[in-house]
Design a protein that fits this description.
DNA-binding, 192 residues, alpha+beta, five-stranded antiparallel β-sheet, single chain, 5 helices, 10 strands, three-stranded antiparallel β-sheet, XRE family transcriptional regulator, DNA binding
């Protein structure tokens, strides 16, 4: 399984457990596994066996087809936009006062990472371009419109976007002040 699918499964388990108002301990008891195993699975720190996964899903009283509906590789989504309120919070053992929020996860093998701070002045423009990298953008301040060939996404402070840079794209500052973004390029031998 690809790592992004495992993260979707982990998040789905946590989401369904919370929807049903079941504690980690209660789910562990129902599935006949340890509390720490449930915690590790929910935080994508371990991969459950197929039998354990099925037991957990059954313990949540969810049909397998319903549980796996809409779980698919991230490559099925050419552009992924995450609003800051959609970031998934998770905990790590023995870490009080730490707030971890998973924004995006993408497995990219044999890659080079380039991290950039981009400032866009009001009215800044350029033509649509292509990059041989996966691109991740996090808006620190301002309001940015990301234009692709046939669609666009408006991103506010705290929003983020991940896409295959081979899609023709360009950002526009649609605010009155300079917009600031963290930009991360993931270069690899060949992207799909």
């Amino acid at each position: 399984m690809e790592e992004d699918i495992l993260i979707q499964i982990s998040n789905r388990i946590k989401e369904k457990r919370r929807e049903k108002n079941i504690t980690v301990h209660e789910l562990a008891t129902r599935a006949n596994v340890s509390k720490s195993l449930i915690s590790q699975i929910e935080n994508s720190r371990t991969v459950p066996s197929l039998i354990v996964l099925i037991d957990i899903i059954k313990a949540l009283d969810i049909d397998l087809n319903v549980f796996f509906k809409d779980i698919r590789p991230a490559s099925d989504y050419p552009v992924l936009v995450k609003r800051k309120e959609e970031y998934e919070s998770f905990e790590k053992e023995n870490a009080e006062g730490f707030l971890y929020q998973r924004i995006f996860s993408k497995v990219i093998k044999s890659s080079t990472v380039d991290i950039i701070l981009l400032e866009l002045a009001p009215g800044a423009n350029r033509p649509l371009i292509e990059t041989k990298a996966f691109e991740y953008k996090y808006v620190l301040s301002g309001k940015v419109k990301y234009q692709f060939e046939n669609e666009h996404y408006v991103l506010n402070e705290g929003d983020s976007i991940l896409f295959n840079g081979l899609l023709p794209h360009t950002p526009y500052n649609i605010g009155r002040k300079t917009a600031r973004m963290i930009v991360i390029y993931f270069f690899e031998d060949s992207i799909q």
